[in-house]
Amino acid sequence: MKNLVKDEYYKDKYTDKKISEMKYTCSTFIIYLGLREKYPELAVHNIYLGENFEENIESVFTGNLPKNPSFYIYCPSRIDRSMVKNKGDCLNIMLRVPNLFFKEII
After folding, report:
1. What whole-number distance in Å separates Cα of residue 30 and Cα of residue 94?
2. pTM beyond 0.70
3. Residue extents of the structural domains in the chain
4. 95 backbone dihedrals φ, ψ, rounded to 5°
């Protein structure tokens, strides 16, 4: 916002000062896949919980990547076959990661 929108009118209440003072939440790394094969074991919504769930969730707020992350897989082709042109599946895999506020992510 500070670099892309120069006109203060369009920034509204998001002044450069306010933006600089904001705290940010975690980010998400998303992989979009179009696959040639179908994976019948997947439902539309799939959540996989890594070991030590609490530590896993908190790690992204300390600038760390979890060793055994929890992640979410969305398989829209389960309910809408127009998402794929072949007999395969379409997946979105989402993983929580630290935001770029952290200069070094471990």
Report:
1. 5
2. yes
3. 24-97
4. -130, 130
